[in-house]
Amino acid sequence: MTHKHHDDHEGHEHGAGCGHTAVQHEGHTDYLHDGHLHHKCAHGGVEEHELAIGGTNPADCTPGHACAGHAKGHAHGPGCGHEAVPHGDHTDYLVDGHLHHPHGTHCDDHGPLRAA
Predict the structure, then answer these.
(1) Dist CA 32 CA 2 (whole Å)
(2) How far is residue 76's CA from residue 69's CA, in Å, rounded to a whole number?
(3) Which of 14, 18, 66, 68 is the most buried (most CB within 10 A)?
(4) pLDDT over 70 percentage in the chain
């Protein structure tokens, strides 16, 4: 798991009802915020986490994945209407509780994301 301190996060505290999607991640709760997974750490700061590749969240190509969460021609990216989720060395998008990764003419299914 990556632990990178998020320096520019004043004035907002993540928690129940803060308006950001809560995610179960390695035994704690993170919050999706502007394409990052934020975690309030013990010293009071905010760390940026990412989902590891493997296990429940592989990075495999799944060209047969059919999802009713968006139109077939939908293009994931900034402003597409789906929350960005850091996943290893790339960005996935949260669609109906699972991670989509744009890959050529299809979306790969990179597994479920557990809501907190």
Answers:
(1) 15
(2) 12
(3) 14
(4) 86
